[in-house]
Amino acid sequence: MKVMILAAGRGQRMRELTKNCPKPLLKINGQSLIEHHIHALKKQGFNEFVINVAYLGEQIKQVLGDGKQWGVSIAYSDEGDTALETGGGIFKALPLLGENHFLVVNADVWIDFPYASLRKETAKKIHLVLVNNPAHNLAGDFQLEDGQLVEQGGESLTYSGVGVFHPSVFSAECGGVFPLAPLIRRQIPCAEVTAQLHNSVWVDVGTPERLAFLESQMITQ
């Protein structure tokens, strides 16, 4: 199973920290966020990576190269000056991702998830890892009931930024800039979205305060 790491966002909420540095290269305990992901995924047997880049993307390419330093292969989907958001970014990268299910990981989350377990989650078009709603997203994103996303009636939870997707989810799109969430919701009435709750470590590293929290807690994957 290939892995796509979403790394094209500008990270505006990080303020001065991302003025000259793309958010995926911000460091926790001396190592960048995106390098932590590559290490964690490599330990669990994932070796083929696709990374989308836009804002200051050349810096990411220079730091990571082709992945040989970790014994993995890295291909890049370059979105130029304008990031295509989560849905558009994945759509553009589809030629690099192949015809089978692939794993998506947001570069700006911190999670201690057992990624290897997701290889078996291919019965439906989408499988999401959800977390309990953090303070900055109390309304949640999706509702979960008996392992399936439902349109109403289930427990409201937040998408962690980790999920498994089949390329056919994106086949109806024509490219351009668009988010991922509407594509997920489109599959809910078709019962094509399964999910699970992750109750352990997860942080959306979206602000300087959350970055500082990770540093102070020395949370490791």
Give an account of the 3D structure.
With 221 residues, the chain is of the alpha/beta class. It has one domain (3-217): Spore Coat Polysaccharide Biosynthesis Protein SpsA, Chain A, CATH 3.90.550. Helices cover 22% and strands 27% of the residues. The chain has 5 helices and 13 strands. It has helices at 33-43, 57-64, 85-97, 181-187, 208-217; strands at 3-6, 27-28, 31-32, 48-53, 73-78, 102-106, 109-111, 126-131, 142-145, 148-150, 155-165, 193-197, 202-204. The strands form 3 sheets. Strands 1, 4, 5, 6, 8, 9, 10, 11 and 12 form a 9-stranded mixed β-sheet that branches. The chain has a two-stranded antiparallel ribbon with strand order 2-3. 40% of the residues are buried.
What's the quick description here?
The protein is an alpha/beta fold.
Protein traits:
221 residues; alpha/beta; Spore Coat Polysaccharide Biosynthesis Protein SpsA, Chain A; 9-stranded mixed β-sheet; two-stranded antiparallel ribbon; 5 helices; 22% helix; 27% strand
CATH homologous superfamily caption: Spore Coat Polysaccharide Biosynthesis Protein SpsA, Chain A
What is the end-to-end distance? 20 Å
Give the oligomer, counting copies of the same chain as homo and different chains as hetero: single chain
Write down the overall mean pLDDT.
94
Overall SS class: alpha/beta
Briefly, what CATH class?
Alpha Beta
| SSE pattern, N- to C-terminal | EEEHEHEHEEEEEEHEEH
Q: What fraction of residues sit in β-strands?
A: 25-35%
**Number of helical elements:** 5
Rg estimate, integer Å: 16 Å
Helix content percent band: 10-25%
Biggest sheet: strands, sense, closure? 9 strands, mixed
- Secondary structure: number of strands: 13
Low-confidence stretches: none
Within the CATH hierarchy, at the fold level, what is the topology? Spore Coat Polysaccharide Biosynthesis Protein SpsA, Chain A
State the CATH architecture.
Alpha-Beta Complex
- From the spread of the alpha carbons, the general shape counts as globular
Provide the number of structural domains.
1
